[in-house]
Design goal:
Number of domains: 4
CATH architecture of the largest domain: Sandwich
Low-confidence stretches: 1-24
CATH superfamily of the largest domain: Immunoglobulins
Structural class: mainly beta
Radius of gyration: 51 Å
Strand order of the largest sheet: 2-8-7-4-5
Length: about 400
């Protein structure tokens, strides 16, 4: 649509007969030059009506009588044509508000009539322009996202009003499963809402309405799943083992949508990474022996992943102690008699990979019978002819003992 140009801006048109006029044999040819179909004007403004009419016999054009009329306001003018060329011009400013069909008719001296029409709209004074709907976009979550059931999720969207009407924009979020989720005002072009969603496939809608009632909507589809569960039964946290020992681990996993046996389950170490993929029982029990854990404190983690890609985990701290090396030892003298004391002599020191010097621990046997001596020496008074004595020496750092060194 376009606004009609004010009357004073138009020149009187002198036009010859042309194609498109309402031509019937013997009837005048008539055309409305202005306004055009679909034009708008404001009540009280001058509206210029311009028409062209010609008699079937051009020499009779100066004798035509013309009439301008509105289907809403009736006859606007009835009288002779303006000039012999067939031009007609009328300025009106009293047309009522609303839709009008303007008719321009010409009657020749024989009573034959020709006419043309144009549909226009008269707007109220200072009428605002036609309202444009706001624009809106879903920011979060993304279309196709997977969300955790019964957890708080941020729904957010952006909105703009091309009309910038006062009163602002109001946004509403809704779910195809849960219905209305909340309504909020749009601030600085953004609207957001924290809400919980139940497990299901949802179509989330973001709707924005402006002060004039214009609306826009945007939708995304999401899958909401319950997260699996995972808990470690064994070992307990801060369990300590020696390097090289196996660690028995046991856990329990489950999921509301998937069978426990269908879950993807891993045992991992924060130091060594993935250790073993486990196949839980139908009851959700996972039981494994972990070998070759690296020395040091580490988190051993049980991790379960369901078909939605959601992950649950549980962790315990396990301390793997490095074992001191075994010392080298001999008994002196090599060929003792009952007058000799026996002494364990360390010929190769026990070392601790964690640093520090291990403490040596001694135990003695005579003919395989344990003796009450815990030091490096046995007095001669404790020995008897033909006995076979043996010493066992280990190095310990207070957490782990080395392999034993034995000597007869």
């Amino acid at each position: 649509m376009r606004r009609v140009v004010p009357a004073l801006a138009l020149l009187l048109l002198v036009l010859p007969a042309c194609e498109g006029l309402n031509r019937a044999s013997g009837n005048p040819d008539v055309a409305i030059v202005a306004p055009d179909d679909g034009d708008e004007t404001v009540f009280g403004d001058d509206l210029l009506l311009v028409g062209l009419a010609q008699a079937f016999n051009p020499d009779d054009t100066e004798f035509l009588t013309i009439a301008w009329s509105s289907d809403r306001d009736g006859v606007l003018f009835d009288g002779p044509i303006d000039d012999a060329a067939g031009n007609s011009q009328l300025t009106v400013d009293w047309l009522a508000e609303g839709s009008h069909r303007i008719t321009f008719a010409a009657t020749d001296i024989g009573g034959a009539i020709g006419e043309d029409t144009a549909d226009i709209e008269v707007l109220p004074p200072d009428a605002p322009p036609e309202n444009e709907d706001p624009e809106c976009f879903f920011d979060s979550p993304l279309d196709g996202a997977t969300l955790v059931a019964d957890a708080s999720h941020l729904l957010s969207g952006a909105a703009a009003d091309p009309d910038a009407t006062e009163g602002g924009l109001v946004a509403a979020f809704s779910s195809s499963i849960q219905g209305e989720l909340g309504e909020i005002e749009v601030e600085d072009g953004q609207a957001s809402l924290l809400t919980e969603l139940i497990g299901a496939e949802h179509v989330l809608e973001f709707e924005v309405e402006d002060a004039a009632g214009g609306r826009c909507t945007e939708e995304v589809s999401v899958v909401v799943c319950s997260a699996p569960s995972a808990s470690i039964v064994l070992p307990t946290t801060s369990t300590t083992i020696n390097a090289g020992d196996t660690l028995l681990v046991q856990g329990e996993v489950g999921d509301d949508e998937d069978d426990a046996a269908d879950l993807t389950v891993w045992w991992t170490s924060s130091v060594a990474g993935p250790l073993v993929e486990s196949s839980p029982t139908a009851g959700g029990v996972t039981l494994e022996e972990l070998a070759d854990l690296p020395a040091g404190a580490q988190l051993v983690t049980l991790e379960a992943t369901d078909s939605c890609g959601l992950v649950a985990s549980d962790s315990v701290t396990v301390i793997v102690t490095a074992v001191p090396t075994a010392p080298g030892v001999v008994i002196s003298p090599d060929d003792p008699d009952t007058s000799d004391a026996l002494t364990a002599v360390v010929i190769a020191a026990s070392t601790d990979p964690d640093g520090g010097a291990p403490t040596l621990e001694y135990s003695w046997t005579a003919d395989l019978v344990p003796q009450p001596y815990t030091g490096a020496a046995v007095p001669s008074s404790a020995t008897t002819k033909n006995e076979v004595w043996e010493v066992t020496v280990t190095g310990t750092d207070g957490e782990a003992a080395s392999p034993a060194a034995r000597r007869r």
